[in-house]
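dumping this here before i forget
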Amino acid sequence: MTGRSAPVAWSLVQRGLHWLGATLVLIGFGLGWWMVAVPFRALLLKFTLYQAHKTVGLIIFLVTLWRIGLRCGRVRPPWPEHMAPRSRHVAALVHASLYVLLLAVPVLGLLTAATAPINIPTLLFGFIPLPHPIAPDAARFALLQPVHRALAILLVALAAGHAAMALRHHRRGVDVLRRMWRPTRGDC
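structure:
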């Protein structure tokens, strides 16, 4: 410990990145379900949705790296005083799992796109070509696609549980949600 006192809330940037990441996960998840449901006769729409989905995934990856960097460089706000050690352990495990999934799902998405047998390019923001790290491979694609989908579902489920617990604590008068929602005096 560096002698700095722990803040009572996350910084403005950390809160903004948290909510941006949460919003992007919901958008990316929705785009993912929509893009696979669009029939091939609407090929332009399907292509556009896939490119939007890939762009959102890359942004999620970059936002998560930024969040991890900020989290490593800043003293973490303390756990609520009433929180039992077991609850703190579970919360820390959920947070760590969310960060792992926020990094793993986009990486698996890029690898899935790269291995797709039809070899469609990845265009960030619809026009910036991103090279694929590996070549098309039907066998790898068949393995990666369901893993990407399953981990995306797990990410959304875990995030929903995380949000539900924050709301539960909020209803019980614990300031966990408030610390992530609004600035308090002394926040930077």
